[in-house]
Amino acid sequence: MWRGLTDLAKGPKPQPGLPSRQQILDFIAGSAEPAGKREIARAFGLKGQEKIALKALLKDMAEEGLIDGNRTAFHRMGGVPKVTVLRVVEIDEGEAIAVPDAWSPDDGTVPPRLRLRERGKGSALRNGDRVLARTEETATGWIAHPMKKLPAHADQLMGVVEIDKSGKGWLAPIDKRERHSQVIADLGGAEQGQLVLAEPVGRSPRSGVKVTAVLGDPLAPKAFSLIAIHKHGIPFAFAPEAVEEAQLAAKLPLSSDAREDLRHLPIVAIDPVDARDHDDAIWAEPDGQGGFRALVAIADVSFYVRPGGAIDRDARKRGNSVYFPDRVVPMLPEVLSADVCSLKAGNDRAAMACHLEISAEGKLTSWRFSRAIVRIHEVIAYEEAQRRIDVSEAGDNLVHLWAAWRALELARKARDPLELDLPERRVLLDENGKIREIALRERLDAHRVVEDFMIAANVAAAKALEAKVAPVVYRLHEPPSREKLVALKDYLATFDKKLSLGQVITPGLFNRMLKDISDESEKALIMEAVLRSQTQAYYGPRNMGHFGLSLGSYAHFTSPIRRYSDLLVHRALVDAYGLEQPRPPADLPPATGLADRDRADLTRVSEAISDAERRAMAAERETIDRYVAAWLASRVGEVFECRVTGVQRFGLFATIVGLGGDGLVPVSVLGDERFFHNEKSQVLEGEHTGTRFAMGDRLRLRLAEANPLTGALKFEPEDSSGGRIEPRGKPLPLKKKGKHMVGKRGRPGNVRHQSRKR
């Protein structure tokens, strides 16, 4: 054993006899396996009284702060055991970063951070995962090699404390997909109804959980966004060094010698009335030849956020800002995102300017990029800009913008991008953070004006970088997969509509299909089906085009305050077109373009910011659901006009018309009979009465439950019959084979079901 261990150890072979402190440290550091008291004694050939002396020596070394651990495994103080349990605390561009799970040094030092070397491409681990790993210290820091993933018994849980009549505590879930509460073994001072963080106390679910932190009233203002932040692991606290660096960056002087001075142009920012930041502004004027000269001015974030700096490291972790009704979790410290980088009216601001030449047909005939100083003439809310145009009160600034947009609109129509008019819910809060109103956001021409100018600038940025054969972070949207198109084809057949898979699938094909539908309910239904058939947009360095916008090259350039992708595009433009600024007299990293690692390969950072975007979207959507449920909680028992948005074996999903609250209608409340479920036609049909429930049907439903903590709603029919619904679309024949039943006479949870061939 002694020989085997020393063969694995680095450095000179230990000699028999009581070793010195340095020899023990060298042995522990060089051993490829955990080195405890037994291994040290064997390695140095210790026996009898020498083992007792070794025990005392190891105790002294521990008290002196030289080593840490116990008799089964020692490691250098401040170091990490050779084999230990690690907890993932961050995913850095697809690579997992972990800390020792049981780190608790007496001197208050921070735990070492280890990079997990996983097999395969990208990280299969997530924040909070625990792994048993073999560790090693290298010249560039600690790394770890995962041996196996451990059960998630130490994962943090979030829920609400419920005390039953016997005094036992239960942790009620805040995720609507989780239906079961867990026993609380240790309340930790928490009380009935409080929102808490907890963790399991043992490997068995029967062991229960212990409360580790009390977060307060789950229904208090701002609690819903707090739930989403914790649930999705969204970084919300900036590192102290990032805040300090931001304060320094905010004081950087703007040199008119090094920038194009555009302060004379009456540039305007058109934004939501409640916008937290203003990162884009626009201007246009006729060119005298039927076309237009236009300018899209974007906050020059790359001037303030240097590659590799503390702000940059935090921004990469976030990937984007996350917007909730009551707060924003910004990508950048507020001194930048809400102040210095925000294009406020009347203030000199650093901008990356995109100069565009637009033909009378809306084609981009030329473009150039410059670093500029701008002074925004006015910040206007969308509604106010639209009002001025409608009543002819707009001055030349808006009139020219609208005229240039009409040209861009011609080009848009010629491209024929996907046009899905999907409603967006808007939550309005009062000064106390309570819900004042929930409504669907109105879609105005003013929104389209800004949108089309931003699209033009994004296209110009992508093409400008391609012209220099420079790295590009593209915004990619691939065509629908064949599998999804087959499912859409089958579904459209129930409406007597055909989708030929032999033709070239274009956005215009879907647009023409929707244009021919006169029934608004049916149109909304098919629009949702078309949306479900689409792939999810993402970021990547290899151009795959943007199917939805019908564009061959597209990059995000216009929102670097809130999207890291745009910051990378700005840095690439700085590199490609020599737009570097002189190094400022401040204690900041050099203001270079792309970092070396990004210049070499944008794949990893593109994957990371795509993941961060999906995380933010889920958190924002769930928070809106919770606000809607809270808004409706006082209206349980009321009847609402609803539209069926999903049909499953276990019931219907329905949304309140004009509000967007989504909920379940269990099949058990639909009527006193069995129901057939046809997956292909998305229909539930009563066995005896023929009552049919189909996607798109409008029903009057009574709100039975509204849970603000999970965002879940539950409906029931207005009357006991469930309402007789006229068929929508052509039902497919129901075959005898492979059917199951549900309803008052059937077993709960079963439905007579016909699935499509797979």
Strand order of the largest sheet: 3-4-5-7-6
Roughly what fraction of the amino acids lie in strands?
A: 25-35%
Largest sheet geometry: 5 strands, mixed, barrel
Supply the number of structural domains.
6
Structural class: alpha+beta
Q: Percent helix among the residues?
A: 25-40%
What is the overall silhouette?
globular
Give me the number of helical elements.
18
Mean of all residue-level pLDDT scores: 83
Distance between the termini: 58 Å
Radius of gyration: 31 Å
**Strand segment count:** 34
Low-confidence stretches: 1-15, 104-108, 721-758
Q: In summary, what is this structure?
A:
This protein is of the alpha+beta class and 758 residues long. The chain is 28% helix and 26% strand. It has 6 domains: 2-76, Arc Repressor Mutant, subunit A (Orthogonal Bundle), CATH 1.10.10; 83-150, Nucleic acid-binding proteins (OB fold (Dihydrolipoamide Acetyltransferase, E2P), Beta Barrel), CATH 2.40.50; 153-218, OB fold (Dihydrolipoamide Acetyltransferase, E2P), CATH 2.40.50.640; 240-475 and 543-621, no CATH class; 479-534; 636-754, OB fold (Dihydrolipoamide Acetyltransferase, E2P) (Beta Barrel), CATH 2.40.50.
What does this protein structure show overall?
The chain is α+β, with helices and mostly antiparallel strands and 758 residues long. It has 6 domains: 2-76, Arc Repressor Mutant, subunit A, CATH 1.10.10; 83-150, Beta Barrel (OB fold (Dihydrolipoamide Acetyltransferase, E2P)), CATH 2.40.50.140; 153-218, OB fold (Dihydrolipoamide Acetyltransferase, E2P) (Beta Barrel), CATH 2.40.50; 240-475 and 543-621, no CATH class; 479-534; 636-754, OB fold (Dihydrolipoamide Acetyltransferase, E2P) (Beta Barrel). The protein has 18 helices and 34 strands. A hairpin with a 5-residue loop joins strand 19 (348-358) and strand 20 (364-375).
